[in-house]
């Protein structure tokens, strides 16, 4: 089939190469209706992903509007000066996600408004959380707040849980010099690099430790609790201790509020370790090969908005690995 | 190095409609061609792959770190979408009854060759195109990308240089080496397989 003529000279050969490449690589242009359909679909997602507008375009208003705005600004400034909370107003964290109802904020004597995503939380604020919320704290880590909780930010690293349920996640590698303290009616919870949950109401306080160790200080004394431990304080001051699993249905609410993990350009191993922490299940590999694959696979794309277990399945589906939940462990092995 | 791409992404993140249009107009046709060259998908499936990739991209503009050209970043997302589609297709039952559904009958009807195409010529072009892609795939990635940008996407040397983060001279040199490498492999391929490869 192939002609066995000797190769053409350089210039002629280049022309033939160019023709062969052009013939093979040129693709029919994208039809107009397809391009429009594609554009509209992508544009809808792009617009949905944009942050809510926060600024006013002054150029479109009349000059009189500037005067009105200036007068308003003076009034707002006076109001803030009159109602600002006493003392320092250091940053505590910022709102990363809100579900069903948001956070109502009260600070100073009269100020009260509803927080939005990306709003800052500052010392001196009282928060009432209508739905659940995710808060990121400076230096790394998150605070997840259950619906119906009420808390007060006492200091940049201390909050008082008046009522409700919170989950503190400070990865071990990100342990700050002044870790977060949680004050309750029964005592104060301190930790150094851990995941734990505190539930408080007028009758009792429950502390569940998922990773690391916490110290609970109360009028009755000091109690240390490690991972897989639950402390329950009763009104008389006694502290009951029991062993609990670090995974399962009791922790599902924390997974639903897990911060998004950006997989783009990161290793599969890093992602698996994140999923392991979020699910409270240790990671295990079937063999050295599976571990090596996880270590050298670099991920692309996104799992934004997906809960850890969904993200785990979806990410592994794009690799040669798969997983099983074996007892308390995430067991990773080759898909073949 | 990729300041134009960085600026475009920043404008998009700020909600600039013109930046979005520029982004889609520049990337959608090239991504369609990119996926078409690497798969045997029909045009509707190609559109789905590109749409999914672009949606993932616009949802995650913040993760574009300017370590490569924006289009290169998009092609990486596209590659994963394509793998996903192919993986899902491989999991589907391999044998289907042709009278299973109206959709299947319609798809079979659409398999007929359009009247304006010569079947033999179409088949020949398809075999030749696949052989070229096979040879290109055996070349270093930088060669493949340069040749694809030049002869597939019709970019100028200047545009390719910007996309690859190279100088004009380095890009011209790269293209010359890529052509030479392709020519040598193509010759070897035609000697070995005797399918449709032109002698050079």
Topology:
The complex is a heterodimer of chains A (336) and B (200).
Chain A: H1 10-25, H2 32-49, H3 63-83, E1 91-98, E2 103-107, E3 111-115, E4 120-122, E5 125-129, E6 133-136, E7 142-145, E8 150-155, E9 158-169, E10 181-183, E11 187-191, E12 195-200, E13 205-211, E14 213-218, E15 221-226, E16 229-233, E17 239-243, H4 252-256, H5 268-279, E18 283-285, H6 288-296, H7 308-316, E19 321-326, E20 329-334
Parallel strand pairs in A: 9-10, 18-20
Antiparallel strand pairs in A: 1-4, 1-6, 2-3, 2-5, 5-8, 6-7, 7-9, 8-9, 9-12, 10-11, 11-14, 12-13, 13-16, 14-15, 16-17, 19-20
Helix pairs in contact in A: 5-6, 5-7
Chain B: H1 3-13, H2 17-37, H3 43-59, H4 70-91, H5 102-110, H6 119-137, H7 141-152, H8 157-164, H9 168-193
Helix pairs in contact in B: 1-2, 2-3, 2-4, 3-4, 6-9, 7-9, 8-9
Describe the structure.
The complex is a heterodimer of chains A (336) and B (200). Chain A is an alpha+beta fold. Helix content of chain A is 27%, strand content 33%. Chain A is built from seven helices and 20 strands. Chain A has helices at 10-25, 32-49, 63-83, 252-256, 268-279, 288-296, 308-316, and strands at 91-98, 103-107, 111-115, 120-122, 125-129, 133-136, 142-145, 150-155, 158-169, 181-183, 187-191, 195-200, 205-211, 213-218, 221-226, 229-233, 239-243, 283-285, 321-326, 329-334. Chain A has a 17-stranded mixed β-sheet that branches. In chain A, β12 and β13 (205-211) form a beta hairpin. In chain A, α5 (268-279) crosses α6 and α5 (268-279) runs antiparallel to α7. The longest helix of chain A has 21 residues, at 63-83. The two termini of chain A are 40 Å apart. Mean pLDDT of chain A is 81; it is low at 1-6 and 54-61. Chain B has 200 residues and is an all-alpha fold. In chain B, 72% of the residues lie in helices and 0% in strands. Chain B has nine helices and no strands. Chain B has helices at 3-13, 17-37, 43-59, 70-91, 102-110, 119-137, 141-152, 157-164, 168-193. In chain B, α2 crosses α3, α2 packs across α4 and α7 crosses α9. The longest helix of chain B has 26 residues, at 168-193. The model of chain B is unreliable at 94-117 and 194-199 (pLDDT under 50). At the A-B interface, α1 and α2 of A face α2, α3, α4, α6 and α7 of B.
């Amino acid at each position: 089939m192939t002609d066995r003529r000797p190769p053409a000279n350089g210039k002629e050969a280049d022309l033939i190469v160019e023709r062969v490449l052009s013939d093979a690589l040129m693709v029919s242009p994208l039809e107009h209706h397809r391009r429009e359909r594609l554009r509209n679909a992508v544009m809808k997602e792009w617009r949905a992903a944009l942050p809510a507008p926060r600024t006013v375009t002054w150029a479109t208003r009349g000059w009189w509007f500037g005067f009105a705005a200036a007068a308003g600004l003076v009034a707002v400034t006076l109001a803030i000066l009159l109602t600002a909370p006493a003392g320092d107003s250091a940053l505590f964290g910022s709102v990363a996600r809100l579900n069903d109802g948001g956070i109502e904020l009260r600070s100073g004597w009269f100020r009260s408004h509803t927080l939005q995503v990306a709003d800052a939380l500052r010392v001196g604020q009282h928060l009432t959380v209508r739905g659940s919320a995710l808060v990121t704290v400076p230096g790394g880590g998150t605070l997840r707040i259950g619906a119906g909780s009420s808390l007060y930010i006492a200091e940049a690293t201390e909050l008082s849980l008046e009522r409700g349920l919170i989950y503190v996640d400070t990865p071990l590698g990100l342990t700050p010099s002044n870790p977060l303290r949680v004050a309750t009616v029964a005592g104060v919870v301190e930790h150094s690099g851990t995941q734990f949950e505190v539930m408080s109401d007028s009758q009792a306080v429950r502390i569940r430790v998922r990773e690391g160790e916490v110290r609970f200080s109360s009028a009755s004394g000091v109690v240390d609790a490690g991972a897989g431990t639950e402390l329950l304080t009763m009104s008389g001051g006694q502290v009951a201790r029991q062993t609990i699993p670090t995974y399962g249905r009791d922790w599902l609410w924390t997974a639903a509020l897990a911060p998004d993990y950006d997989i783009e350009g990161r290793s599969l191993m890093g992602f698996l370790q994140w999923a392991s922490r979020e699910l409270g299940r240790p990671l295990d590999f079937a063999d050295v090969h599976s571990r090596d694959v996880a270590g050298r696979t670099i991920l692309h794309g996104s799992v934004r908005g997906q809960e850890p277990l969904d993200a785990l399945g979806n990410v592994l589906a794009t690799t040669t690995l798969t997983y099983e939940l074996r007892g308390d462990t995430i067991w990773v092995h080759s898909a073949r | 190095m990729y300041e134009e791409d960085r600026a475009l992404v920043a404008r998009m993140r700020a909600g600039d409609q013109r930046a979005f249009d520029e982004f889609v107009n520049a990337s959608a046709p090239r991504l369609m061609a990119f996926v078409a060259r690497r798969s045997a998908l029909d045009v509707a499936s190609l559109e789905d792959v590109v749409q999914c990739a672009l949606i993932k991209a616009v949802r995650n503009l913040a993760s574009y770190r300017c370590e490569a050209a924006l289009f290169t970043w998009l092609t990486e997302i596209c590659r994963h979408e394509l793998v996903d589609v192919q993986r899902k297709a491989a999991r589907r039952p391999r044998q289907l009854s042709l009278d299973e559904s109206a959709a299947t009958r319609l798809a079979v009807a659409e398999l007929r060759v359009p009247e304006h195409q010569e079947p033999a010529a179409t088949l020949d072009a398809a075999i030749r195109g696949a052989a070229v892609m096979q040879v290109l795939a055996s070349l270093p990635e930088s060669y493949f990308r340069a040749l694809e940008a030049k002869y597939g996407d019709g970019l100028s040397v200047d545009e390719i240089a910007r996309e690859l983060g190279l100088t004009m001279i380095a890009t011209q040199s790269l293209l010359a080496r890529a052509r030479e490498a392709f020519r040598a492999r193509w010759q070897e391929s035609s000697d070995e397989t005797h399918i449709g490869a032109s002698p050079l």
